[in-house]
Amino acid sequence: MYTIELQAEELQLLRSALRSYLQAFGHNEADLVQAAKTLMLKLPEVVESKAG
To answer: Among the residues of the chain, which ranges form H helices?
Structure first.
């Protein structure tokens, strides 16, 4: 198992990249689509902190 730390901007970039990756695949890559969807589910939601 690996652990990485991401800034909020990096997490947003990773989510966007995975969404683009998912859109690039068609019906013949069902295993890759499922793996990407599973990975997306593991990612935390981006929480925007507002400094006051």
So the answer is: 8-24, 30-42
